[in-house]
């Protein structure tokens, strides 16, 4: 989600928007970085694959503590991250907002607890992919290189760390260009940028301060998870779905986007139960996730309901594009960190034929 569709989004108004990536890398561009580079800076496939794997592996196996700055369009916010890994590669992570309402995400391996203090609510979700900064999408890095050329740019420092800099340039206009800054030693991703037309800044995420190789304090994260056990818990359950059985067909209109999963999931506003036990309106929707290995998009299908007022249209924020259209008695919403034309083509590719009833 892949970047954008996580417990943060499920929590609605109490959510932690932008704290975790779903299907996506965020980026920013400086004029100097936009300068043309010589053609011989293109990495061969073996070198490029090695660096992509090193970046992805470092995010999971290194111990690091730092401050992250996110920028999406004109919106900026900061958070504090702690990440630890043990000898058998168990992961422990804590992400805390540093501005706005207090929010916290605690992760032990693939189980994520999103804490909403004012509601004394914990949203628990099991992740299928580690796709937030500073990791890359957990997909085949070789496939990425069928769609992007990877060039090495002059080295730079980020947050006091010497970094190798790479540009991933798409072969077509269906996806954005990406720029990565990785620690020369560990490979940990220090900054990621997404570039629009003419190198325009769309999104960015970067460490403003980081310590790599710190002693593990994983027990504090485990204890924090246990201490939240007295709060109200809402578990986000995903059920496997088969869209074809329900009358839906989606023919991916663009090369390189592969279906990662299709599930039935809750969507709506969660809050602490009231005296009558009401947790707030929660709707079930079908979700299909596509990825090209570096970015991705989601298609949501939900029945038309008087309880949820929707209308057709388009919207964008930074690199994220949204299209909403109605198909029969259903709303189709496509969300992705891809160009607007790509989102529109996927929205148009969704078709519905009522399944035949067996008598």
Written description of the protein model:
The chain is mostly beta strands and 359 residues long. It folds into two domains: 221 residues, outer membrane lipoprotein receptor (LolB), chain A, CATH 2.50.20; 116 residues, MucB/RseB, C-terminal domain (Phosphorylase Kinase, domain 1, 2-Layer Sandwich). Helix content is 12%, strand content 43%. The chain contains five helices and 21 strands. The longest helix has 17 residues. The chain starts with 6 loop residues before the first helix and ends in a 7-residue tail after the last strand. The N terminus is likely disordered. It comes from Cupriavidus pampae. Keywords: Periplasm, Signal.
Q: How do the strands and helices of this protein lay out in sequence?
A:
Layout: H1 7-10, H2 45-61, E1 64-72, E2 75-85, E3 91-97, E4 104-108, E5 111-116, E6 121-126, H3 141-144, E7 148-158, E8 161-170, E9 177-183, E10 189-195, E11 201-212, H4 218-227, E12 232-236, E13 239-240, E14 248-250, E15 258-268, E16 282-291, E17 296-303, E18 313-317, E19 320-327, E20 330-336, H5 340-348, E21 350-352
Parallel strand pairs: 6-12
Antiparallel strand pairs: 1-2, 1-11, 2-3, 3-4, 4-5, 5-6, 7-8, 8-9, 9-10, 10-11, 13-15, 14-21, 15-16, 16-17, 17-20, 18-19, 19-20
Keywords: Periplasm, Signal
Subcellular location: Periplasm
Protein name: Sigma factor AlgU regulatory protein MucB
